[in-house]
Amino acid sequence: MTERTARPGDAAPGGSGASVAVGRPAVPASADYHRAITEALARLASALDRRDWKGIAAAFTPDATGYSATGVTNIVDVVRRHLGGCGPSQHLLGNHRVTVDGDRARSLTYARVYHQGAGPMAGRFFECCGEYDDRWSRVDNQWLLSHRGFTMTIRLGDYGVLRPPEEE
Hints:
By secondary structure, the protein is α+β, with helices and mostly antiparallel strands. It contains three helices and seven strands; from the N terminus they run E-H-H-E-E-H-E-E-E-E.
């Protein structure tokens, strides 16, 4: 069997349209997969900013890792403890790089995230810039996060604005 390197735009075996390399590392995603993954990232960013806990959960596989937690329930709990008592936030994403290998993918995405303080932290803010390193699994023709990592390169303000919701 002859080994070759796929070029961007080459179809995966079986005609799925994904760009993959035969016997080589993953290559840039086809336009359809790139779009699907960047749209999933945008939905998650919006869910984080709206405090849509169900929407956040829907972005992950049941056994995903991320935010220093394992399992979708634990991931949502960690996010809730950070954003639940925070004022408005905005997750801005860009410079998406996506590679696909069959039903697995990796995306590297720049992020700039602003968090406004609330309650006792009103008037304060925390802003960070960095890069998400996400791993994806295609399940039922939908891309779900199986792992989420974030490397923070810039920190501004008071990290204390990230806090759990007030007791009800």
